[in-house]
């Protein structure tokens, strides 16, 4: 009969698991206390964002930024050649980032989480 020594216990979660645990804790804390501002980049009032203010509405943002669900629907209806060109173009050119659907449904507006900052 063999005994299982303490050295044969499963390994700890390690650095990767610890990072996941920290992100999960931050997400849980953020969902109850407000935005996870570390994941919501600031908006600089320059170029295409020059007119942004702390009173800007979700509608203002969605004039340029597309919802993920809308993009997914558009891509489903593209023929393969058009979809391939679309993907090549998306990888070459910086476009306004997609907005997750949950963000558009959240009671807070875009500028509640994405702080408006002045010029650099």
Automatic annotation (TrEMBL):
It comes from the Bacteria. SUPFAM superfamilies: Multiheme cytochromes. InterPro entries: Multihaem_cyt_sf. PROSITE patterns: PROKAR_LIPOPROTEIN. This is Uncharacterized protein.
